[in-house]
Amino acid sequence: MENGQGQASYLDNLDHGCQLISEIYGKQDIATWTNSDYIKLSNILYKKTSVQISPNTLKRIFGKIKTDARYYPQKATRDALAIYIGFKDWDHFTNSQPLPVADSLLITPTRELPLTIDEPIYPAKNKAKKGWKKGIFWGIAIFLAGLFIFLLREKIFPSKAEQVSLICKNPVGENPHSAVFVLRGISRNDGESTPYVIEFGDGKKMTTNGTDSLFSHYYEQPGRYFAVLKRLDQVLGTATVYLKTNGWTATAHMMYDTTRVYPIDFPDLFKGSRYSLSATEVAQAGVDTSRTFLVDFDNSHITNIDGDNFEFSTRVATSHDRPGVRCSQVRVILHGESSSHLITVMKPGCLHWTTAHFSEIKKQGKVDNLDFLGADFSKGGTIGLKVVNKHAVLYLNDKKVFSIHYKQPLKQIYGVEITFAGIGTVYSVSLKDIKTGKKFDGNF
Fold first, then answer.
1. What is the mean pLDDT of the chain?
2. Quick one: 12 and 25 in the same domain?
3. Could you tell me the pTM of the whole model?
């Protein structure tokens, strides 16, 4: 039990939470919710709590999908629901919120239903004891029986976290790298009924029915990637892959050609006064420069710089208008051990394509107001980012334009990536750990 409450209070708290969620969502009559409402609510919850709750799970919680037993979600799911309502976690919600009268609840079961074993709850005994010896005997017997059932269940039906996992057998390599992934704990029959999806973190993904357990994926650009195993849009496991470089490298690719990239090998890149590539050099690498193309400059290695306490700045110039380039963009990524910071600056007329990621917080110009990322850097400009204890402040041309606090620590920085649409120039890069003074060895 939690908080010393009985079984009925758990259901009452769940129903009351659903009522409050429906009010915040804006549609109090849950019975009228359609499939799109559950999909929309799933996305809203993920954006606010960083916890992925599938639409089907929400349907079970709100009673849309009927089950033999009254569905009661696991603790992490309940915590996410409480955070959406405005509380620290589920315990905070249940301890702070008075329950409404029974006839005001939106979800009322038509009959008494036991809770599902998603989170076991054992009701108190109602029978009176007939003697302390007999009570002790039955108490021991019930304890041993419960322990036996628990051990048997864990052996035969391991928990979901133990049952399914995604593992990379060779997570560290150079550019390019063929990463080998292993799926563990997937039942063959279970996999055949509902497919699993692996998103490799580089924009590519694959689907498997669970009959195979070994997969290989070819990574073509340096950086740190987070591969994700999903089923029914629910994250089941993650694995990291890290491609290192020896100093700064350049790679080009065409926007609508996802089949290959074009390494540009010039040993004196970013040495002396060489800070960019010419269109001729990009064309010699195999790129059709009359089409939309991008050039990535990467310096990827373990830096020993704290990704949650650092100062970064770069002075760049984006491409002038040319065939295939209208928005004159530049994107900066700071790869971290567990996440990343990403900023895309565009011409003011192209704000639809802007993006800003600060660890788990992800914003896109097509759905968020990112006017502060509108700037024309074709004649040069600066991008600065200062992070202190997970509080990020963004500067454009030495002017503070945005600040935000994130929760998921970036941990150590694993590299810097600067991408241009078309031909761009990087005049300087400066990255330093605020606490230790450690400097990035790719600074220039």
1. 82
2. yes
3. 0.61
